[in-house]
Amino acid sequence: MLSAAFVVLCGLASWRISTSPFGAVLRAIREDEVAAQSLGKNVTRFKVLIFVLGCSLAAIAGSLYAGVASFIDPFGFDIAESIFILAIVIIGGKGNVLGSILGAVVLIALPELLKFLAVPSGIADPLRRMLYGVLLILFMRFMPSGLIPERAGR
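Below the sequence we write its predicted structure tokens.
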């Protein structure tokens, strides 16, 4: 219940940031840093602020994970986890909160579907990783904006 409350709070905070003037400056920096700087925006300040905000959200997630797992090992977060998180953003759609949520739901539901197919666990894990790779390639080729693309002019 506590995790769900924090998911809602962090999701609302992220949505609020992305729809605010602060988010508009961040999009301008993403598209053309020099142009944003020429408009008088302190690019370094905005980059540091969003880095701190992102790290704060990661700290909340990490502390909730530590409470659930009761043991944290740095080897539990390897390259496969990084690729999984990248796949969530690419498949869901970058630049919006709902896209990331939808990408997480899709990629978490996929391995659960493999359980219904009665695939042995020795085959299911490599199959899951291959499926993530194929999905990444297909989405990058045919739907580069993801399932929920970022709205223009927001």
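Residues 50 and 99 are 19 Å apart (CA to CA).
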